[in-house]
Specification:
Layout (H helix, E strand, L loop, with lengths): L2 H17 L2 H8 L3 E6 L2 E6 L2 H23 L4 E6 L11 E4 L27 H4 L21 H12 L9 E5 L5 H15 L5 E5 H13 L3 H9 L3 E5 L8 H16 L3 E6 L11 H7 L3 E5 L4 H15 L5 H10 L4 H17 L6 H12 L8 H12 L3 H5 L5 H17 L4 H7 L5 H17 L1 H18 L1
Parallel strand pairs: 2-3, 5-8, 5-9, 6-7, 7-8
Antiparallel strand pairs: 1-2, 3-4
Helix pairs in contact: 1-3, 5-6, 7-8, 11-12, 11-13, 12-14, 13-14, 15-17, 17-19, 18-19, 19-20
The structure holds adenosine-5'-diphosphate and magnesium ion (MG).
Adenosine-5'-diphosphate binds next to helix 6 and helix 13.
Length: about 475
């Protein structure tokens, strides 16, 4: 460790502290460690790739400025990024920040090699031999139900005739663990199996972003673009990740247009509908809506039974019917969680050398689901109702009068009345200080709606089930 590096960095910090807020300073600058200062190059260590990207995205100007101030026009900053253990390489690698005279996005400017010890990413060419497809995800093991009928059949149509149907792009959205990746991959597998000449590529938006940032650093934007323009079927997962990443969106927009114009197929997934994708440019959003947008919901009870049975069958494990039923009944958050419970159950049975039976299933589920809180309280109800209707707890307590929020709020109040010992006054208090008549009105409204809206009544039943599960 060169002593100068430390004092230079200390001076930098002083300047930075004055430029960014205290909170940002603590979060983003305090964890940085100066490593060395050699020939006007200051190397700092940051805890992760994400950290580095965040700094580069948000503080590049401050950093350039401060390096200029401290080290003059020749000064440069290098990052040493600690790669998480378990990932490709457990050694720090170093990338440098383009020096202050360069425009980050200017290809000519960036022609000065800015990578001193580049992280060995598989090259895009090498990657083209792989489609990143996981053969375990196919249509046969993607159980159909009301929850996914449209998305699944559109997916199948696309898979049979990529680029030809009007479902281009096909945009699939749904909450976490509801089968987006599975479906997107199933499309890719089908296309790739049926048509060997079709270059299928599955990529997460996160990976696309990383590749793009690397391409900028490596001055290889051209090969990045060329690579993507060759793809025949582009499957791009979790596009909500593009939010706020302007440059990546621009690049994706360009690729999207080119592929689309040339009749290539694009399939995307997102954890929310396009209209709720904040931080995405309008022109990109409008493209997303060109084809078909189809959603995935939580499978209903019967579909959950079918999913469990199918899993058991493919794993060669027997589970008695009453246990299948119990699990399907109890786990109604998402499919991934359902699978998680199944795996725990099998693990418990194997470790304890016992059969899988209802008793064990109850025990296992209790451990998983009930280890945080064991009683139904206002907090639990607000959290559960919020998750169920995809509304934040803050909104439930807030004054917002948007219809969905008002209904969710009334449902939460109704459940508090049913499942807790709180007085009407106390319930009102927990919902942003409303008075008891609001709570009475909420209970009344929910009762009324249950009478004439069977879908709503069903939702309340599901929520009540969660309450009962919690209080056993
Ligand atoms: P997402 O990408 O939406 O978060 P995944 O596609 O990773 O969700 O799905 C989570 C798990 O649930 C995966 O193991 C997937 O195989 C399984 N799964 C989801 N939906 C279904 C379904 N309809 N039939 C069978 N398995 C499913
Ligand atoms: Mg996924």
């Amino acid at each position: 460790m060169v002593k100068d590096g430390v004092s230079v960095w200390e001076d930098c910090l002083q300047f930075i502290r004055g430029q960014v807020g205290e909170q940002s300073f603590k979060t983003w600058f305090e964890p940085i460690k100066p490593i060395s200062l050699v020939d006007h190059v200051l190397t700092i260590q940051v805890p992760s790739q994400f950290f580095y990207e965040y700094l580069e995205e948000h503080y590049v100007h401050v950093l350039r400025q401060v390096i200029f101030n401290e080290l003059g026009p020749e000064g440069r900053l290098e990052y040493s990024v600690i790669v998480d253990s378990g990932s490709v390489r457990n050694q720090p690698y170093v990338v440098t920040l383009p020096n202050q005279n360069q425009n980050k996005w200017d290809k000519k400017g960036a022609s000065d090699p800015t990578i001193s010890n580049p992280f060995e990413m598989p090259s895009l060419e090498a990657e083209s031999r792989y489609s990143n497809l996981n053969p375990n995800y196919d249509f046969d093991n993607y159980i159909e139900g009301d929850c996914n009928r449209l998305a699944r059949s559109a997916g199948l149509a696309v898979a049979q005739k990529p680029g030809v149907t009007s479902f281009n792009p096909l945009m699939i959205y749904g909450g976490v663990g509801l089968g987006k990746t599975h479906l997107v991959q199933a499309i890719g597998n089908r296309v790739s199996n049926d048509n060997k000449n079709n270059f299928v590529l599955y990529v997460s938006s996160e990976k696309f972003t990383t590749q793009f940032t690397d391409a900028i650093k490596n001055n290889s934007i051209q090969s990045f673009t060329n690579f993507y323009l060759q793809v025949d079927t582009l499957l791009i997962d979790d596009v909500q990740f593009f939010a706020g990443k302007e440059k990546t969106q621009e690049m994706f927009f360009h690729i999207f247009n080119h592929l689309h114009q040339n009749g290539r197929q694009i399939v995307m997934s997102s954890d929310r509908p396009p209209r709720d994708l904040k931080g995405l440019q309008d022109r990109l959003l409008s493209r997303f809506k060109w084809g078909l947008t189809a959603d995935l919901q939580m499978p209903d009870f019967e579909t959950r039974m079918a999913i469990i049975s199918r899993k058991m069958q493919s794993d060669g494990i027997f589970i008695p019917d009453d246990v299948v039923e119990y699990l399907a009944y109890s786990v109604d958050t998402n499919v991934r969680e359902l699978e998680g419970v199944l795996i725990s159950l099998i693990a418990h049975a194997t470790l304890n050398k016992t059969d899988i039976n209802l008793e064990l299933a109850k025990q296992t589920l209790k451990n998983i689901v009930h280890d945080i809180e064991s009683e139904v309280g206002v907090d639990y109800i607000q959290k559960t109702v919020g998750e169920y209707f995809q509304i934040s707890v803050e909104d439930l307590k807030d004054k917002t009068r948007k219809k969905e929020i008002v209904i969710a709020r009334q449902v939460a109040m109704y459940l508090c009345k049913e499942y807790t010992n709180h007085s009407l006054k106390s319930i009102g208090y927990h919902f942003g200080g409303r008075d008891h008549s609001t709570v009475i009105h909420a209970v009344q409204s929910v009762n009324d709606m249950m009478e004439y809206d069977s879908k709503f009544a069903h939702q309340i039943e599901e929520l009540k089930k969660k309450m009962r599960m919690k209080s056993v």
